Amino acid sequence: MQLEQINTIHRVPYQDGHVSWHEFGTASKDAVPLILLHGGHGSWEHWLKNIEVLAEHFHLYVPDMPGFGDSSFVDSQFQAGIVDPMIATINALVGADERIDIAGFSFGGFVAAHIANQRAGVRKLALLGSAGHGGPRRPRGDLLAWQEIHASGNNEELNRVMRENLFQQMLSSYDRIDPLAVRIHRDACVATRFRSKPIARPGGLAEQLETYVGPTLLIWGEHDITCTPEYLIEKLVNGQDRRAKELVIDAGHWVQYEKPDQINATLIRWFESA
Question: Is the pTM of this model over 0.90?
Answer without folding.
Answer: yes
